[in-house]
Amino acid sequence: MLTMNKIILFNPRSANSKHRIPNSILQVGASIQGKYEYVFVDGNLESDPWEKIESYLKTNSFKYFASTVMPGQQLKQAIPFSKKVREQFPEIKIIWGGYFASNQYKSAIDSGFVDIIINGPGDKAFPELIDALETKSDYSIIENLIYKKDDAIIKTKKSDLFDQDSLPPLPYDYLNTFYPIEKYLGKTFLGNKTAAYHSSVGCPFTCSFCAVVPIYEARWKGKSAVNVFNDLMQLKSKYGIDAVEFHDNNFFVSEKRVVEFSNLIKNQNITWWGEGRIDTIDKYKDESLALMKEAGCKMIFFGAETGNDEILKQMDKGGTQTGEQIKRFAARLKKFGIIPEYSFVLGLPAKNDEIVSKQIDEDIKFIKEIKEINPDTEIIIYVYSPVPTEGSELYEKVSAAGFKFPQKLEDWLNSDWESFDLRKNPLTPWLKPFMVDKIKNFETVLNAYYPTASDFKLTGFQKKTMRWISAFRYKTNLYHHPYELKALQKFWLHYRQPEIEGFYSE
Fold it and tell me: Per the domain annotation, does 494 fall within a domain?
């Protein structure tokens, strides 16, 4: 029987242009489908999301406002809209989920306008919570919750990860009644209709800079290859998808699963991309890599992070990755025609400025070595933004250097902290302005000399022109004040910056 108290599931705006299927909020919808009445509000596709939210709440038939909240852009709507709900409709229960909510739960709960946080997967926690609230029952026994009681913040027990094949299917058709699915299928370098999809949750590793670690505690669960394939075939049949971005934290944990999936999808003309680890996929057989390419795998994202083995240890990546392996693996993927997309994190804390600056110089040199080995390697550069795991070596270094997150929730809306979340301005005391400039200037030169393969709008002539103009700087290590390249970017063409833009889509 459907409840009279309905639920708003809100997906705050996460991008200014490209929009992807909101899988996280869809997963929550799946957990209550057929049991509770609910509506979707997607901040990406509403011209005025608050007007839509307010119109629902004014009907007096809604009792719950639930929002997924990721760091960065989503905070711009999640925080002020939740505050408005509390001020104008104080009887409404406000429930948050997502990485930001779980990792910054103290500031969220102390705000006074976030009642309960789903701490990790909400597949069972969310419907059980609504059940308890509807029947006015005790919800302290429900796993994966964070809330306040008698001025104390309560964190309930973390649940085991659920069998992903046992979870209900995502309600694509229901979402389609609110927003046409086609609006989420952007044109990318992968294909004309690119879908976003989650085939697993968590990651079995413990990288000390990763926001996933505190939530999933080095655990991973994936759907079977058959079920992943069946889901994608449904999206292909109904909505005509021809490409997939696997937004898993780690799609490639199981070689067996990847091989099975590749065999199933290889004749379906679907191109795909996913995230993995170098030291995991380097153990794959050559036959597996060849099959993946045949099955449409075009690019794989890897956290290379740094070429410095000592820093890799500090990052506690929990595997066997080394600088030499990073270079060797780039060469190996070249043989199979799969593009390695390497992300690097520059500007980690050290004992003094000289060491930090030296480490940046060494990583710039290392990146250039990678490009010599495999010019097709995509390079994404981030300035280090602390999200360290408490108790790790990196956490101790960050704390000792004087770094602290905002204590008040609304302080995250400060322009500096927005930039921090987008990894533009890290606000880290050990990084001096000249170091940040060095990283950004090198990035400008690198992106001009090696335009990203995912920027399908650039013409061959534009790419050649950028390469010619930037060649002297790149070859002579002259990165200071690349004004001509910035002017080129501003007045003639806009070449993509994948570190902040993701895949380009129309």
Answer: no
pLDDT over threshold 90, residue 55: yes
How far CA 68 is from CA of 27, 52, 56, 448, in Å, comes to 11, 17, 18, 36
Contact predicate 235/185, CB 8 Å: no
Backbone angles phi, psi at 110, to 5 degrees: -75, -10
398 belongs to a structural domain: yes
Range of the domain at 42: 6-155
Residues in the chain: 506
Confidence at 425, pLDDT banded by 50, 70, 90: low
Mean pLDDT of 382-394: 64
Domain membership flag for residue 211: yes
Find all residues with CB under 8 Å of 480, minimum gap 6, and list them. Answer: 441
For the record, the structure tokens of 10 come out as 């809100």
Residue from 433, 265, 248, 464 nearest 347 by CA: 433
163/179 Cα distance (integer angstroms): 29
Burial string for 128-140 (b: 16+ CB within 10 Å, else e) reads bbbbbbeeeeebe
CA–CA distance from 265 to each of 124, 262, 282, 329 (Å)? Answer: 31, 5, 22, 25
**Considering the domain boundaries, does residue 65 fall inside one?**
yes
Q: Which phi and psi angles does 234 have, rounded to 5°? A: -65, -45
Measured CA to CA, the distance from residue 245 to residue 188 in angstroms comes to: 10
Instruction: Examine the domain organization and report whether 252 and 360 are in the same domain.
Output: yes
Q: Helix (H, G, I), strand (E, B), or coil: what is residue 435?
A: helix
- Convert the pLDDT of each residue in 447-493 to its tens digit: 999 988 777 778 888 889 889 999 999 999 999 999 999 888 777 76
For residue range 175-208, list pLDDT tens digits in order.
999 999 999 998 888 999 999 999 988 877 766 6
For residues 368 and 408, membership in a common domain is answered with yes
The number of domains in the chain is 2
Q: pTM higher than 0.70 for the full model? A: yes
User: Per-residue pLDDT averaged across 128-148, rounded?
Assistant: 95
